[in-house]
Queue: 2 jobs
Job 1
Amino acid sequence: MLMLIMLACMPLALSCARAEASEPPLYTRMGGAPVATALVGDVIDRASRDPQLKAQFEGVNLVRVKQHFVELICSRGGGGCTYSGDTMHDTHGGLGITEAQFFHLVAIFRDSMRRHDVQLRERNELLKIFAPMKRDIVER
Amino acid sequence: MSSLIQRSIRSRASLPLALLATLTLGPAVVHAADLQITVNDPGGQPLADMVMYAEPVGGATAPQPYSGAQVVIDQIHKEFVPRVTVVQTGTSIDFPNSDNIRHEVYSFSPAKDFTSKLYSGKPAAPVVFDKPGAVALGCNIHDHMLAWVRVVDTPYFAKSGADGVGTIAGLKPGDYRLSVWYPAADSEPEVQQIHVDAEGTHLAVQLHPPVSQAATAAAAAHSPN
């Protein structure tokens, strides 16, 4: 019987592999739009009130920042959105963001992910998306 | 600018002439065929950045065609500078960016609907204001940034300085439809017909700040400036 099942699966190896590849994308696994929106809202609200970071958010339209941030996670996380914002270089250029500020925001982001029950694997995948952006964000 | 002009005129005028001018024309001497307008609120406080423009009526000389002047609205420390601009229909306005961060100027106003991304150090294409009316400018990135462009179908326009005085220069003597506008979304120009004579004319106009601006105006009146 076991033999039979194994044999049955053999010709289907290709479709078995496909089944594994079509597991839900990161955006779905992390909880989709509701979690992404809540997470991003929390991160930006905390960052814009943080003593180390708030100067960078002075006068900034936070609603827009949040919309674009969610869009970015959705687009990069396989959620099917199109990111309509500017490049990381254009959006952060001239702000003089320090490495310390960048890592401080990462710390807030990690903490918020835990607060919103994003699991370890998804947390790491999200960090992997944002880590390479450091070179376009940090200026000094 | 207009306050500077006024001060230089005052300093050059001899005392008796200045006194005579006070009696006949108002508080300051004006150039021949200049229309000087003082705008105050009902409490007598001068109103700065008020828009004023004169359109010839009847036999007065028609406005000369638009001269092609280049006008600039800069972005400095996350503010539009200047906050109020008056231009003749067809004028092209440049939006440089003196900040080292990006801005994104936009307007949804019917007279000009546009968006322009302003990156630091990258000049953006000038925007042509081709329809008369009020244009509210905002920045998509910085909520608080607000400026007004009033596009007018006449070359005869000015705006008031900090002293509430504006001067429309070089008018031919005659009758004009004078509009004075408090830049705000809920404000319409106050229109009156006036006569400008060869010696120039001085007018005092009282404007009630629109509801949206009443609080701001009250705060300004109580500020030490």
Note: The interface with chain A takes residues 78, 99-102, 117, 119-120, 139-145 of chain B (CB under 8 Å).
Job 2
Amino acid sequence: MNAKRFTALLAGAAISALAAPAVFAASAAAAAGAYKAPMNDYGQPDLEGTWSNATLTVLERPKEYGTRQVMTAEEVQKIEGGAAQMFAADAAPRDPKVKTTDLPHECGLGFSGAGCGYNAAWIDPGSTVMRVNGEPRTSFITDPPDGRLPPYKPGVTVPNMYMRAHYGENPENQTLAERCLTSFGYSAGPVMLPLLYNNNYEIAQSKDTVAIVVEMVHDVRIIHIGAKHRTDGERPWMGDSIGWYEGPTLVVETTNFPQATALRGAWKELKVTERFTRVGAHRILYQFKVEDPTVWDIPWSGEYEFSASKGRIFEYACHEGNYALEGILAGARADEAAAAAKKTAAAAPAAATTVTKKQ
Amino acid sequence: MLLTMSYAEPGAPAHKKAAGGAIDRVGGHPNFSGVWSVMNTANWNIEPHLASAALELRPGPVVPVPAKAIVALGAVGSVPAGMGVVAGGAIPYTPEALAKREDNKKHYLERDPEVKCDLPGVPRANYMSLPFQIVQSAKTFLFSYEYAGAVRDILFSDPGPAPIDSWMGQSVGKWEGDTLVVTVTGMTDGTWFDRAGNFHSGDMKVVERWSLMNENTIRYEAEINDPATFTRPWKISMFIYRRLGEDARLQQFKCVEFVEELMYGDLRKEPLK
């Protein structure tokens, strides 16, 4: 993938227009409109199926859009057309003589060198701008009105989940994704956010449980309907999710997040409220509200729509094929051995000279 | 009594109702939704076995003793006895495959995929000591296993041969009366049946039969077809029980992080002594 070009396309599409801030849950009824969501045999709104949140729209709004929530048709065409061009170009035959050293040193999205060889065959970030109620959106976040995270409270530090201290020293120093413990990014959430690939989910509903199968690392979110949050102080992976139904909407409230999967720095007092509303035969409106008064002075919220996937979810057996973690650690040891050998070699002539002098 | 009869005859039709409360239904079918687990020792060894000192033994001066790596666990490292779940008692291995099973036992610690927290495959996933949850609706039948977060979804429309092998395989289901019959194919040869070295090839086909005998008891049967490993198809059968009340919450057992020292400890910057 030419990620640099991809980023440029997104940024280049930004121009200003009217602001249209949304209020959490307010647009659900409007979006639901005339559509009547089907009910399942348990008398619940039927959310089952395989769904995708792959999209060219991102969580935080590029600053160029200001407080404008909706893209113009021209902006949409530019972004979607650009993405289509990029994928077409990527699919074109390559010169087999090109080496990794011929790749650009920096190609955006954190990729560089050989990492730029992550071409389109390996990714699936979506090909369209996110539509919510038919509107092409500039970001998922709708509140604050600028579509961006609110300012952090003084003293709050947000570790970069991709940058770890003591990288390569121990398996525990590596990212959760490299260890196959969770996805990179925040695929399972909550908030469930799309990634560069594998943005597929399956929802299954029984009377007292909603299970959301997340393709990445085959995580399963188990949501306990009508239950209470645990009070034992334990913090399971993906937090502790309880849910209930409000008319056509599944509401899920998650607390007790573990520190390891902090959401933009928040975990201890983090509460995420999600609302799933079927707004069409092939669409689920997904709304979220994020609160942690120890991290932000105000909550932030947003929305997007899942679209129905035609296929099924295949197994992402990450750990079973994780040769990368062994390679990272072994590579770090090899680097250390090479550095030590170089140091020894550099010291050797001096030592030899010394010995000669003594003789 | 019906339960006993069924246990003695794994191939016999499952009884719709033996005892207990009424069976809930959804979509016209018995509703298996809930958290379930076995109360047997099949994951230790699906064949009949007495208790023994350890999963891997080495020669001792008088009798075999636990492998060095297991000694420190004492009684915790020993194997509990079980009546076995294989119809007829013994698995009908080919001579070559039987020799491999015996070799697997000698190298248990390095070969059992459970030791490395690999996905368990079918049927093993169903009778590990950890529970699993079934989420069933009129159109969906999903298994979420506590062990390693394994998951499998039953396809009620046969898509044809699995396009790619996987650890949990491709499960295609159909209802035969009140019994859910699931044909599982497309599994790798990386999974085992238990901790006793019992294995299969990548061509194995498993046909499972899931029957609710009462609201809290499943009769589970599976026929194993794998001509590369066995001289004939063979069956396992067992009961699986509903977890009730506070026990009916699936926990998480993401064991990947628990095996990092085992798998990568020697690659630390400063390996532990």
Note: Chain A touches chain B through 44 residues (CB under 8 Å).
